[in-house]
Structures are given as C-alpha cells and as structure tokens.
Amino acid sequence: MLDLSTDRRSPQSPSRLPPTVFRLQHIAPSIIGPGLRLRGELSFERGVIVGGTVQGAIATSGCVHLTATGSVSGAVRADAMVIEAGGRFEGKVTIGEATGLLPREEKGGPFRRRRTA
Asked: Residue 111, SS3?
C-alpha cells in the first residue's frame, strides 16, 4: 500500500518522503492524499497519485496511479494508469500506453486503448 502521509519536517528533502512517493514523483508530481475529496474536471501536466476521492474527469499526459485508499468515479484520459489492490474505479478510461491492474482491484466501465502510429 502506498503511504501518502505528509511529513512536515522538510518537504524539500527526498529522504523525508515515503519511498514510493519519492520514486513516483518524476511521473506523477501531483498527489491527492487520503481524506481529500475533489469534484469536477481535473487536469494534470505530468500525472497524479490518487489516494483520496475524485468525482469527475481526470486528464493528464502522464500516469494516473490509483492507490489502495483511492477512489475515482468518472472518465480518465491518460498515457498510463495503475490501480492498486483495493483502489476503486468506476468510469471510462482512455489510455495511450498501458493499464496496470493489480490483484483484487475494483473496477467498472469499459477500458479502451488509444491507437498509436
């Protein structure tokens, strides 16, 4: 499970970040942490880690990483998507590269891969 807790001691220091978050920062620098609820159309330049709740569309040229505590209800358009076991998703996904579904994920809606030349 991805720990998205905030360490307030030194947000600039990589050694203070949870290891998985530090490794994923280069592909998904935005984080929707546990307990955070967002509604609407969201757009991210380089991807997002979702540990909270999103009701609405997500668009990014990067990766959408849905953690075990995360929930998304709406359309997702991204280059890649990963859903951890326990993550909840309901909606339509359009991806460019790959979709990773880890064991025991809950999902709903059609998955469609965008054709590449």
From this structure: strand
Token pair listed for 88: 């909840």
Give a three-class secondary structure readout of 38-91. EECCEEECCEEEECCEEECCEEECCEEEECCCCEEECCEEEEEEEECCCCEEEC
Radius of gyration (C-alpha) of the chain in whole angstroms:
14
Q: Please give the model's pTM, rounded to 2 decimal places.
A: 0.64
3-state secondary structure of 24: helix
- How is residue 115 annotated by DSSP? P
**CA-based max dimension of the chain:** 47
Give the tens place of pLDDT for each residue, 50-95.
Answer: 999 999 999 998 889 999 999 999 999 998 888 988 999 999 989 8
